[in-house]
Amino acid sequence: MYSFQDCIHFLASVRKIHRELIIILIDRVPRFLDPLLLVFGNVRLQAAPKHENPVLASRQAKLALYQQSPFEKTIYLDCDICLLSPIYEVFDYVDEVEWLITEDVQPAIAKAANLLRVKQDILSTLQSVGLPVNENSIQYNGGFIAFTKSSKIQELFINFKKYFEMVVAHQNMLLLKD
Predict the structure, then answer these.
(1) pTM of model > 0.85
(2) For the purposes of burial, counting CB atoms within 10 Å of the CB of 95, is it exposed (0-12), middle (13-18) or buried (19 or more)?
């Protein structure tokens, strides 16, 4: 129910500014609550990938963004985001670069202790499971993603999924982060 409450606040903040179609990838919300989401207008509910682990399910939803989005340009926002001003310029930016994502609060991957379950050297641990990172690699926050559909971005999502599967396969050492 906590995520549902976040979703209501998210929709309210977006609808104060934007009227565009919003697709909500939804899972584990009782169907009788659907009208509370649809009341915001121009909202479509779409089934999110299912998994018994809700964290894994939410990460799989991000992996499916490219395939799930019916749009040429997509802006994905986690439902715990509250818009305070319009974001029209994001669509202009993705015309120029095809892909936008924000750096994490701690962008240096070598200092990203939040990615590990164990107290070990971060960089060598990530490399040991096959992740192609080095001392200059950056950690990004997947709570905001904008993209234009293209073969290059489709390949990016394919690689995103491949590397995420490495993380899932090594849950004894790694956490399911964005």
Answers:
(1) yes
(2) exposed
